[in-house]
Amino acid sequence: MGHRVATHTRTTRLSFVVAVAITVATGAVYLWAPRLLTDGELTVYDLHFRLRGPRPGNEQVLIVAIDEESLRTVGRWPWPRSVLAELVQRLSAAGVAAVGVDIILNEPERSGELEAATRIAERIRAQGASAAIRAELERAIQDADHDRRLAEAIRASDRVILPSYFTLGRRPPTDAPARQGAPFKSGLGSFKGYAERGLYPPINADDVGLPIPPLREAAKSLGHVNMQADADGSTRWEALVIEYRGHYYPSLALETVRIAAGIDPFALRLDFGRAVELGEVTIPIDPRARVLIDYAGPGKTISHVAAADVLRGEVPAERLRDRIVFIGATAEGTYDLRVTPFSPVLPGVEKHANMAANILEGRFIIRPAWVELLEAGGILVFPFVLAVILPRLRPVASLGGALALWAGFFGANHLAFRQGLWLPTIYPSLAIALTFVAITIYRFLTEERQRLWTRRAFQQYVSPEVVARIEADPAALQFGGEVRPITVLFMDIRDFTGFTERHDPQEVVQMLREHLTRMTDCILREGGTLDKYIGDAIMAIFGAPVAFPDHAARACRAALAMVDELERLQAKWTAEGKEPFRIGIGINTADLVVGNLGSEQLFDYTAVGDGVNLGARLESLNKEYRTARAIIISESTYEAARDAVEARQLGEVTVKGKTRPVVTYELLDLKAPSPPG
Description:
Elements: H1 2-32, H2 35-52, E1 61-66, H3 68-74, H4 81-93, E2 98-101, H5 112-126, H6 131-144, H7 146-157, E3 160-168, E4 190-192, E5 203-209, H8 213-218, E6 221-224, E7 237-239, E8 241-244, E9 247-250, H9 252-261, E10 268-271, E11 275-278, E12 281-284, E13 290-292, E14 304-306, H10 307-311, H11 317-320, E15 324-329, E16 337-338, E17 346-347, H12 348-361, H13 371-389, H14 395-418, H15 426-458, H16 464-472, E18 480-493, H17 496-502, H18 505-525, E19 529-534, E20 537-542, H19 551-575, E21 583-598, E22 603-608, H20 610-620, E23 631-634, H21 635-641, E24 645-653, E25 662-670
Parallel strand pairs: 1-14, 1-15, 2-3, 2-15, 3-6, 4-10, 5-8, 21-23
Antiparallel strand pairs: 3-5, 7-13, 8-9, 10-11, 11-12, 16-17, 18-20, 18-21, 19-20, 21-22, 23-25, 24-25
Helix pairs in contact: 1-13, 1-15, 4-7, 5-6, 9-12, 13-15, 14-15, 15-16, 18-19
């Protein structure tokens, strides 16, 4: 027991050294932040979405989709802006709350109809046409001017938000940007922490693409449609605000929700590095004015209606009334594909719709600055937790323990994610994995190597159950011995010398191997230890190295089984025309020295003492006494096993080295078990 405690203490101490090393190594990797692990954190983030699964889209948000059906009905993309004008008119007539347009309109439409009407008017004017004709031609030109028609529809609606698109800067500014000129429509005018704008700079832009002037002037507001993917190509963030020439401009989703809610422009406030406030709603942001998009699910999780159905008047007005509508292309080949946690092919308009739904529901995924302290805590704590747990467990159980620790950690992270908190996973998981591997390798090179040596050394001499118990407490295998009560059994073949003279050596060897194998099996089944083969004899001990309290009874049961097994062998050999041989067995119980005894060059696990000599003497007494089963046991064995065996006293015998005679018994059989009750 002392050895086991010492071994465990040493392993635990060295495990703590491993834990310190792993903590330092993981911390160094954390500071290095290799791309592989950074992408791995993003992959785990996406996994949280898939484990959570889709949820119903917000019923207040609707996408009017320019889908395959609409293209078949109206014609190929891009559509004439007169069609977009009609679409805006129908949505406005149905009473939508706001219309966010995700279609870039930064160039005039070059329609053949307008060019033809313009050329005809120029020629007729040159020929001096009448005022009536000129007026009619002017009306024809106006009808052919689809940009003008769209602008009129947008102005009449007074709830349309058009898209802007920024060319983003390559790196954040190092100083607070100075304002250059006046802002264009939709620029923010309300701020908190304005002096900190250089410390927490939103994503900045070098250039901007705006709708053409007639449309820009007619629009209720503008919102940017920039999408900035992470390094792995997936779109997870919404840039709520982008800085351009010292002015700050909202995203399409943010501005569309503001217009729909009727919130005053000055109630949209940027608190640098902390939040964007939209009326009563506070949207937490990162230092670059971004927020994570809490996608409801894959494509079409947000409700869709086909643009063609709206144009045909087939969408009931109650389905459109008071809804926030985003118009955008969803047909293949007409939109920019976006990779998201749920889908590798999500139309960009769905990203805007999901962000609008997040704002309406006040549902945001946040990653506050303090999670870095939590991450560092995981890197620091988990290795030491494993350093305490793993040395107490066997390899398979230690793997289960490490996996259970990680599963609990990941489960807690996923529950936090469902509540809108993104906690780091990769680096604490790396610390767990490295600690488990390092401690396991160390244990294999020390403890497990010792266990393997124990198994190889003992598996041929004791039963598997005994081997397992020795592995659990290898102290008995240390050089030296201890005095303990055990039972020793000797078995010898009668007149084996004459037998070998009468038979062919090959036959003798074959019969002896078969005999010793059967006898050894009987010993091992009772938990005995094969001490040694002495020519044709066997010496076995019971009660060591595993201290069975009923070692005397076990030895008696093994002896009776050996006699029964020999009878079967004798019948077999007789049937084969071979001469069978007989055996004698002696059993003694005494306090003996047991352990690994011998020299520094060679030692053996064995027992020594007067009790061993008595056991050998009892075996030889079978030549002098006429017994039924050729098993003679000592008085001490009989007293230890009398509740389990039937025996007959033979008499007293004086053994060399003993002054008092020893009472001997013939072992007859096992006692029948007592009836229950």
